[in-house]
Structures are given as C-alpha cells and as structure tokens.
Amino acid sequence: MLHGGLWRQYQSVNADRTFDHVMHWLDHEGWLSNFDRVASGEPMGDRPGWVFSDSEVYKVAEAMAWEYARTGDKTLPVRLEALATRIAAAQDLDGYLNTAFGHGEQRPRWSDLAEGHELYVAGHLLQAAVAHVRTIGEGTLVRAAVRAADQLCEEFADGAREAICGHPEIEVGLVELGRALDEPRYIDMARTFVDRRGHGSLGEGNFGRAYFQDDTPVLTADVLRGHAVRALYLSAAAIDLAVDQSDTELLDAVQRQYDRTVSRRTYITGGMGSRHQDEGFGEDWELPNDRAYCETCAGIGSIMVAWRLLLATGEVRYADLIERTLYNVVAASPSDSGDAFFYANPLHQRVEGEPVDPVRANPRAESSDRAPWFEVSCCPTNLARTFASLSAYFATVDERGVQLHQYGDYVLRTPWRGGSLALSVRTDYPDDGTVVVVVEEAPETPCELRLRVPEWCEGATFRVRGAAPVDVSPGWATAVGPWSPGDRVELHLPLRPRVIEPDPRIDSVRGCLAVQHGPDVLCLEGIDLPAGWSLDDVAVDDPSSELREGMPARVSLRSRSALDAAWPYRPRVRGAAGRLIAGRATSSGEGAVSSSPGPYRETHLGPADPSGGAEDRVRVALRPYRGWGRRGRTTMRIWLPTS
Amino acid sequence: MLHGGLWRQYQSVNADRTFDHVMHWLDHEGWLSNFDRVASGEPMGDRPGWVFSDSEVYKVAEAMAWEYARTGDKTLPVRLEALATRIAAAQDLDGYLNTAFGHGEQRPRWSDLAEGHELYVAGHLLQAAVAHVRTIGEGTLVRAAVRAADQLCEEFADGAREAICGHPEIEVGLVELGRALDEPRYIDMARTFVDRRGHGSLGEGNFGRAYFQDDTPVLTADVLRGHAVRALYLSAAAIDLAVDQSDTELLDAVQRQYDRTVSRRTYITGGMGSRHQDEGFGEDWELPNDRAYCETCAGIGSIMVAWRLLLATGEVRYADLIERTLYNVVAASPSDSGDAFFYANPLHQRVEGEPVDPVRANPRAESSDRAPWFEVSCCPTNLARTFASLSAYFATVDERGVQLHQYGDYVLRTPWRGGSLALSVRTDYPDDGTVVVVVEEAPETPCELRLRVPEWCEGATFRVRGAAPVDVSPGWATAVGPWSPGDRVELHLPLRPRVIEPDPRIDSVRGCLAVQHGPDVLCLEGIDLPAGWSLDDVAVDDPSSELREGMPARVSLRSRSALDAAWPYRPRVRGAAGRLIAGRATSSGEGAVSSSPGPYRETHLGPADPSGGAEDRVRVALRPYRGWGRRGRTTMRIWLPTS
Questions:
Q1: Cβ neighbours of A315 in B, within 8 Å
Q2: pTM of the full predicted structure?
Q3: Which residues form the signal peptide (chains A, B) (predicted)?
Q4: A316-352: per-residue pLDDT in tens?
Q5: What domains are defined for chain A?
Q6: Cα separation of B273 and B264, whole Å?
Q7: Of A313, A479, A427, nearest to B592 (Cα)?
Q8: Would the CB atoms of A475 and B584 count as touching at under 8 Å?
C-alpha cells in the first residue's frame, strides 16, 4: 500500500532483512527447534530460551501473514505453512500448545501462571492466526490456534480453573480471533480474563501486584501502572471488548487511564515505561531521561491502544500520538540494515557504552550500539509484525467518508456507499510538509475527506480543488465532495523547528528545552560536538530566534567550563562579580591558634567569563532522534539545558 | 564514651531496642536455627533465607562486642558466648562454616562464587571476631573465626582455588583479623583477593562485570562503579592493605576512585548508589532523587572508606563527609523506636506509599513507612554494629596531639607521650553550634589540640583559654599546649540555614536548591503542606534573605496552579501577557472546508496570576531529612524547584 518514503523504506528492510535475521536467531537460539523436539517426544528439561520464546515464533508468523497482504509475495504463504506445520506438530492431542510446560522433565501445564507466560504465548499464537485469516485465509496455523483457543477456553472457564496469566496478551488474542472467526466464546473468555484481573490472584511476585495490573480491576483503575507492555496489551483488549460489547463504562475507564498516562507518564518521544527494574511505569512525573526504559514493545503497545481509542472515539489526538510514537520510538529501534535493534529507548545516553557483540544475544541493552538479538528478544519480532502491518494505521473509512491519519505515498481504494473511492496520496513527509491527495475514483454520493492537521503544526493551509488556500489549525481539515476523478486536495504543513518546554512538574527536565521538527523530536549527539567537548557540560541559549527552516536544525551551544570540585553542592553566596564563591573567611589568630582549609575552594559555577573567547561556543546540528547512534557509538540527549 | 545528645540517643535505642528486635527476626525467619540444624546434621534443602543470611547473625554478634566496650554491660559477653556456641556448633571439622552450602541437599561448597556469598559471609564472621578480640578478648567466636580463616586461606591459596567472591567483604575481614591477631597470612590472603579482582573471573552475571568490580583491577580503576556496597567494602580493604603494606600506589588508586565518586556520584546527603536495579552507582552525574537508592549499608560502607582515608591522609574533608553521611543517611534509617528501618534513602518521595506490614518481612522497601525487616535484611544489623561502635569515629590521636572530628558529649582519655590526656567535650550539637572542650588531665609535653571546623560553617570562631575569639575557616582550628587541667577551648559554629546550589551537570536537580542547617540537609514533607497542596506543584523563591537562625527553617512556597493538560510538552510561544500559548491559528474557510481542534488547549504554565490571591503562597517548615517520615506516611523532597 505504501509506495515510497520513510515508512516504505522501513517496510522493505523489514521484509528483505529482518525476517531472515529473526529466523536465523530463532534457529540459532534453538527456539524454533523446541517445537520439533516436543513433536518428537524428547525430554525437554534442557529446553533453551525463556518460557515465552515460542511467542517470538508466533510474532514472526504474524509478520509473514501481514507481509503477504502488503506485497502479495507468493512465497510467504508457503514459508508460513511450513513454519505452521512445525508449530502444529508440537500441539498436544487436546489442543494445548507450548514448548515450555507439560512435556518430559518440564513443570506441569498452568503450574506458574504468574510468571510462566503460557497464556501470553497462546495470545500471540491467536494474533498470528488472526493475521492469517485476514490475509491468507484458512491454514494449519489457524487450525492450530483454534484448537489451542478451544482448549484454553475449556480449561479456564468459570467453574474450572478460574485464573489469569501474569502477562496480559491472551485477552487481545482471544477478542481479535473471536471477531475474525465470529466466535463469541472467545470474546466471552477474553472478557472473563479482563474481569478476573485486579483481585490479587497472582500474588505479590517480585514487584507487587501492580506489576501485572492485578492490584485494581480495569474498570476502577485511574492510570496505567506496573510493567508497561503488560498494561498496554491489557488496555488494548479491554477497548476491543468495550466496543464489541458496547460497554461505555469499560471504554471510559481505559480511556481515562490512558489519558492520564499520556499526560503524566509519557516521554516527549511518546515512549512509555520509566523504570528498568520492573520495565514499568513509575509514578506521575517520574520521567528520567538517562534511565528511561521506553521499551520498543511498549511503544508498539501504546500505538495499539491509541489506535483502538482513535477508532472508538474519533478523537484526532490519538492519531497525533500514534505519529509521535511511530517516529520517535518505533522508528528509532531498528538499524538501517534491519539486523540490530534498540530494546530500550532512553532520551539521554550519558556514555557511549560498550560495542555490542554482533554474534551473541545481548543481555542488557544499555549501549548506544544496537544489538542483533537479546536474551529476552520480544522487540525484534514485534517490530517485524508492526512494520508489515503498518499501513493499517494510515487511514480509516466511516459512513461520512475517509480520514487520513498518517502521511506517505499510498493509494487508498475502498468501496463507499455502493460506489468506489480511490485516492492517491503523495508527499515527501516528514522531509517536506506538502501532502497532495488526488481523487482517482469517486463515488456518486458526496463523501467527506478529512486530513489530520498534526498537533505540532502552526500555520497549516488547506487547498481544495484549486481554490485559494485557507488556514487550518491542528485537528481535522475537512473537505466535502461530490468528487470527480482528478480532483486535487493539498495540505501544506510548515516544518519549522519548534522549541518545546516541559510541564514544570517533570523534575528531570526542569530548565531544559527540546526541539521538534515536524513529527520528529530532535536530539544532540556527542559525535557532533567538537573535540574536547562533553554533553555533560553544554548549555543552549533560547534558540527560538535562530532556528531556521531546513534540517538539521542548528543551535548555539556553550560549554560551561565548570571547574571540577571535590564536592558538587555549594552554598549560594554571590560575590561582587556575580560569581558564586564558597564561604571562606580569612582567618587570623594568635600564635597558638591556626586554621587550615578543607577541600572547598573558590570557584564559579555560573556562565564562563564572556571574555573567555569564542572557543566556548559552537553551532551544532540537532537531528531526528530516530536516527541516533547510526553513525557510531555516541552520547546523546534530547533535552538541552538552558543557560 | 558518648554521654548525651543525638548520637547517644541512637546508641541507647540501638542497645535497648534494636538488638532484641534483630534477634527476634533472626529467630522468626529461621536464620538463627539454620546453625542448629546444620549442627544436628539435618538435611538443609528447605533452608530459609538468602544464601547470605548467616552474615546477619555475625553482624549482630559484632554489635554485641562493640556494645560491651561502650557500656561494660556484663550480660553481653554471656549472650555473645551463647550465640557463638550455636554458631560454632555448625562449623565443619575442617573449619568451613556456612549454613547455605555443603550440607545435606545443598549445593557443594564454593560452587557459586559469583552469587553464593560464602566468602562474604565469612568476612562478617571475621569482623565479628575482630570486635570480640578488641573488646572481650578470646572466646568461642574468635576460635571459630580463626578456624574458618585458616580453612579458607588454604582453600584459596595461590596454586589452589585461585578465585574470588562476587561480594567483597572477606578482604576487609581478613585484613582486620590479621591486624588484630598479628597474623600476616590473613593479610596476604586479603591482598591476594584484592589483586585477583578485576580480571573477569566471575563472569558476566546479571549486570555485567562492573557489578562486582571484576571489570578493572583496583589499581587501575578511576571511579567506584557497580553495586555500591560491594565497591565500598572492597575499597575499605584496599586502603587497609595499602597502609599496612606501605603501598602508596594502591592508596592513591582508591583515593582517586573515591574522590571522583564523591564529586560526581554522591548525593547531597552523602548517600551513594543511584540505581535500584543493581543497587549500583550510575554514571557520573546520574543522581535521580526519586529513585535514589542510597542504601543504608552503602552509607555505612562510605563511612568505612572515608574513615580509612582520613586516617591514611589526615585530610579533614573525609571527616566532613563522615559527618554528612552519618547525619543524612545513617541517622535517617532507623525509626525512633529502633524497630523499623529504611533500606533505601531517596531524596524525593513522590507518593506516600503503602503502610508497611509490621509483622512481615518487607520485599521492596519503597514506602515512606520504615519496615521492621526485609527479605534481604543487611541494613538493620549493619546499623546495629555501626551505632555500637560509633564513638570510634569521633576523635583520633597522633604524635602531634588529638584531633576531634565529630561533636557530642564525651570524655576522651588517652595516654600521650608517657603522660595522660583527658578531655571533656560538651555540646548540644547539632541543635547548638558551641563546642566546649575542658582539659581534665594534661600531659607535660605540649600537645596539639585540633577541632574540625565543618566545611559547611561560615563565621566560626575559636577561643582558647579565655583569650579573645578568633575567626577560623573550615578545616582545622588548632591550639597548642602546654595544657593544665581546667583549661578551656571553645569552638562556636554558627548554625544559620544555608541555601545550596548543585553543580549544573546534575540533571536531576537543575533549577532547584536545597537548604542545610549545620550538618543537616533539610527536606520538605508533604505532611507540612496545607490541604489541597501537592509537592508536585510547589516552587520556592530564593530564600537566602528570609532564612533566619533557629529550626525549623521556613521558606515561602508558591503553588504553580498549573492547569492539567492532555500533553505535558508545549511549544514555546509567548503571548502578549507573557503567557505561554499553544500554537493555534484561527481557521476560516469556504463552506467545503472546516477545521476542528485537537486536544491542545490554551493554557499557561508560568507562575500563577499574582492577582490569584494569597492562597497561592504559604510559609512552610523545612526539617532535617533524618527526621522524615516519622510523623506518618508522607511525600517528601530535599531539592526545591525555584520559581
């Protein structure tokens, strides 16, 4: 569907490189052959991989199905069927399918619901089957998923095993499969899982009940908390259920939680998850930049939630947030060659970190180097399925007409009120802010055409069928037909770099500003500093007046030339020259009395003496955050301290 | 030795309450009876407690020995001997002593050096024996420790098991015991352990080699890194060895590492350890307040290191740092009743947290409520031994005379150059800044008397034998004898609250200030705010001019009255009234074109309208951080945002 531009490039690299890369690692790590070994009845006591490694296989299967829809590549259903045959061979006679439990030398099925991830893994199988149904149709993977879903619905029915999984995912898998196959039992089971959550049945775990959203029922919680990916997958399922079951109370609850999360627990990149320790949300306003976790999967989870809220409410701000998260979390993760990834997406990299070993799974993911694979490797396969299905997020159709949410080169073709509508969308976005929509086929009935004017855009203009351009403000620019083939609509979005200030309650960025350019949050990389400069020591003057159109944006930096001192906290005593002087009395005394100094020496911490010379200042380039770390290991920061 | 005042109070509560409290929990958790069970030959597969729980028993034994020296309480050696008998009964015939390894159903001895803590536990046994030797003398505990030390020296000799322990502690235990018993083999073994470290022999672990200081040898490292307590215990041992072996290269190396750590990786409280995830130091300038770990044990470890550097170098700044850490980390941890503790000591508590269960070991220690015990419970016993031996840090004697480092009510009595010196020190410090020293006995030879003038003190005066007071600056105030009984020396340390500014490289406190009063870092507790106010929303005007002598210090706070918005990052666009306005063009268009807004509404983030009325401002009390959370659960912050 996407014919060119940034996202088409990501999709091509995904299909051409990442698929093979992921399959190589699944093979290399033994996560694929776990299915073969279960099928052969081998003892599995030495099974490699975490308990959830099956899910990586399912996510790449899902990616293949979406990719088939994107390109029609006929080898994909063949490869997918071969993969599905290996998967299905490991399925037990009753439908249970998991290589980590219940086979020779392993713990019994469902014996560790809090940490065992069995239902989580099944949820990814179901989502893969949904992609298969919606693109290829029937197949081995779908049959295996249905058998697995039937088995777990029986196992976890009310009156049977009334329990939930520590990691939400089965819920969204069940509701999606229930819709795809028109099977209300699956939807009911998903609802049951959602309703059972929040009552402490999982115990305390290592990080408390909130870690797996088992502290408070979904209906009554106020904010997302605990493990970010878990919270977001659960929210996605709850919205699907609320819409399916016309449950406005549930929809309102999730929307309320997500909105507060966006307003108080979300980074400027759209990233979510402030803590490494539990991969979790912190408290309101707890948004450290250097230790921001911002897991790539949480970015994807947030897009899943925002997309569902956009569909459920029609509120354009959710499309804005999808854009922000796509450009500044999802796009930041993969390397240009699609074979290395960021797992965490911090906003400040204090040290370059170690070079990453390209042939070893990475344990920690804290370097400025992208890693080929991780010991917990959820992100690469999550990216694969997201890029393959990305165009689904670009536009919607409803009874009034068509809404264009994201911009790129694509043709939208849809039946509409008995007729048929085709639009060609062309743009060099985000390098250029002009979006041209040409009507290729038009229905007879007048049809509303809505284009999102991004929240970041000031001075946008909208031009319909050659009329004079009119100003449009963020939200929707709307034009109403009737349309004829060849009709042209143009949206112009000025792309000046903009200076962004944070809410004063965010302690981590007090006294700082950031710069955005179009949908891109910009960052400063240490690699762009002159020799001898350090990102620790720089400050920026308010660049509002000096920022010009065009990229990279350039700002003036000063080096603070702070003197190193033995102790970094000093009394505020201002001397005549406005310098900060450590309190120091001159001592005098009789012969028997003397005084010698401690380690606190006179120094200044303020701006360097202006007469210090030009070497204190430099103009440096700010570039899109999504591009960081691609020119070698480096330090980096998004938020720039002001003078 | 201490007769009154703040620290005497801590010592009394420690002896009267904490000892019994700790013994109760050691019993309750089964950590004591582990020794009995090993002695009886029971299978130990179900042994309760972490692998290092024996060390808590040793630390309380050490505390009892020091406490005997403090008070002469004759029941203590009896209780200690009874405890030692239980301990020694678990000792294997060859001297190996550990209840977690090597017995029925357990892993073999030394089978998990990276994580098993066997040598760490032995190190605490040796330190307990040192306290025993230096206070009570011979005894069962000492004999057990010697047998254990002999066994491990043979086991880990060069040519035998050339390995180290993941958690340093054996090194300081061995060097201290070697000195106490004049046994060079122990000192050599300690040196061998130190020299073996830093070569990667422990593997990568969960957090990489730096976690256990196995990334770089002690001689070549530049800064403390990884797990803070481990790094500090290792440093303490290395200094002891450097002094003992006159190894200035080693001493310089540790001093260099510690000095850089103090100047770039230490909180204003003296607390060390910025990360929860690995209980570790972060990078330079990575000093989050809300997620500061500042483990109580790391504070104690830092005092151990600073004390050794003070002795080795004579530099007064190490005594300053001991004071800072004692008042603002160690003193903050225990409850007034000595039966609950902070494990972590954050500088910012965003939420009150849950009430702590007083009869259950606490898993996470993240509330504003002190907890009775922890699943990993190193801190309570570490406090017990530190308070019991606290007076050791107060003064030193050398060939020139006497140095008074810390202030309180005490009598110092020491032989000096064939004569004898006795000083009575009286003060209400830190409530009052006057310290009076009266000579009670005097040697014939003139003797230098040095009193530390704390680094925080401006305007100190010093008065010797009734002469006119003279100004003294931070460092040493020195008076030289000859002295006669009744001679009096007075140091006056003005206690005005002082405003402190951070180094601009500390991102977490940019635009903030703190207030100190004497050695106390002050904090603002949410419990002191008017109803409806939140610590998230306050800012302080520069209080330099309004701070008066006397406690609590009072500052003027403003509530920012920021409006809640859907997104907390906004473009910097200043309107006519100086308000920050989100970009928003007025739209107009022909009939077929319309524009509707996104979620970004006009708002202001700056100071509230001054006409908003007096309810926006309040004078609030700042109180010593060590006292926080003692009046009920509360939010809290040390660093106050400025306007």
A1: 599
A2: 0.93
A3: none
A4: 999 999 999 999 999 999 999 999 999 999 999 999 9
A5: 396-492 (2.60.40), 497-562+606-641 (no CATH)
A6: 11
A7: A479
A8: no
